[in-house]
Amino acid sequence: MTDTVTLTLDEAQALSLRTLTGNGFSEAHAQAITATIMAGQRDECHSHGLYRLLVCVATRKAGKVSNAEPVITDAAPGLVRADAQGAYSLLALERGLPLLAQKARAQGIAALAINHCYHFSALWPEVEAIAAEGLVALALTPSHAWVAPYGGTKGVFGTNPLAFAWPRPDNNPFVFDFATSAAARGEIELHRRAGKPIPEGWAVDAEGNPTTDAEAGMAGAMLTFGGHKGSALSAMIELMAGPLIGDFLSLESYVYDAGQGATPYHGELLLAINPETFMGGNVAHHAGRAEALFDAIVGQGARLPSQRRYEARARSLASGTVSIPARLHQDILALTP
Ligand code: NDP
Ligand code: PYC
Questions:
Q1: What is the distance between the alpha carbons of residues 190 and 7, in angstroms, rounded to a whole number?
Q2: Which residues contact 221 (CB under 8 A, 6 or more apart)?
Q3: Which of the following is catalytic: 29, 46, 48, 266?
Q4: What per-residue confidence (pLDDT) applies to 337?
Q5: Rounded CA gap, 110 and 138, in Å?
Q6: Distance 156 CA to ligand 2 centre (A)
Q7: Can you list the domains of the chain with their CATH numbers?
Q8: Quick check: is 306 catalytic?
């Protein structure tokens, strides 16, 4: 048997939809989740691609996630609320984005607070969607309290991703999206599944000792990236996408989970900024200055964040296929009776 299975994009999409609807997700939620999972697999973000079907289905089987329709509220001139009502975040996001973009365009800046959602997804598809509207975007969300603060050894923070997008004329947007832990939890899970050690600096074991054992690291605590700096950023994400929007901290999400190992349950904050408003009418000039910054980066042989992803996207679209480990394919097939 070969180690990998290659699927056409249509086959992979059908597999995702079949797996989700076959496990009780409504058509609307299955479509929204599949769109993000397919984007992740297409861009070779393996920790947030088809692998996530295992997590979504396990969470559904744990009786944790609803099929509720999101409730979108025009909460204030600068704030859209999308209450996911105990479902995954992605349908709430999809339904909240048009009003977010409309508000940001009208007044220069607006926020979207997604509340009461299960959240498994990479944030770059979300900020890319906002950048596609010509808006600058920021997104942040907590997760489960797996990550120790700098100087500590017990989980307090989530893996807390931060994503940013800057729309560019005639080019893919400038996008970065990273966990504020040294690595995403999904990366450690993939190392565990592959029986591979994790790099030093990703986690400590339950006794607080450095470990390269994925299982021991997951049982202990993950570490922040950049020491005290990642730790502070992670705390900011907890505050802005937690108490500020009236939703759970990662600590509370972890307690709510009660050891079931389901997808984290909390909120998410997205900001959209209209460059036309902020640049004071001189858009071409200031957008050109941004391009000079990007040129200064790539001009010396460095790469922009998301370049690897955009190259992977081009490859997947050209071949019309994605590849996943054969064992993952089997595990996904086994989810649907
Ligand atoms: P990575 O460390 O793989 O990548 C972080 C960012 O840095 C990417 O934008 C990446 O671009 C860029 N990058 C990597 N190497 C370079 C380089 N040499 N030069 C310039 N840029 C570079 O991401 P993480 O493992 O931290 O996170 C992976 C995903 O997990 C994210 O999409 C995140 O949203 C998701 N996540 C979701 C969580 C949730 O609760 N929903 C929690 C934690 C993480 P490129 O992709 O092109 O390599
Ligand atoms: O990879 O850290 C992670 C993660 C948490 C929730 C979704 N992905």
A1: 20
A2: 146, 147, 148, 152, 153, 154, 155, 203, 204, 208
A3: 48
A4: 75
A5: 11
A6: 15
A7: 4-181+224-292+305-333 (3.30.1370.60)
A8: no
The model's pTM is 0.97
Give the mutation target among 147, 159, 189, 225 for probing the ligand 2 site: most ligand atoms within 8 A of CB.
159
In the block, which residue shows the tokens 């025009």?
74
Locate 179 and state its tokens.
Answer: 């966990």
For residue 145 the two structure tokens come to 């309290």
Report DSSP letters for 84-136, one per residue: -TTSBHHHHHHHHHHHHHHHHHHHSEEEEEEEEEE----SHHHHHHHHTTT-E
* Helices 307-319, 27-42: crossing angle, 10 deg rounding: 110
Tokens of 279: 């640049």
* Amino acid code (one letter) for 24: G
- Of 1, 34, 4, 17, the C-alpha closest to 329 is 4
Q: How many residues does the chain have?
A: 337
119 CA from centroid of ligand 2 (Å): 8
| pLDDT for the residue numbered 181 | 98
What tokens does 144 get?
A: 């489960």
pLDDT averaged over consecutive 10-residue blocks of the chain (337 residues)? 90 98 98 98 97 97 96 98 98 98 98 98 98 98 98 98 96 98 96 96 97 98 98 98 98 96 97 97 94 98 98 98 97 93
According to DSSP, the β-strands at 203-204 and 79-83 are unpaired
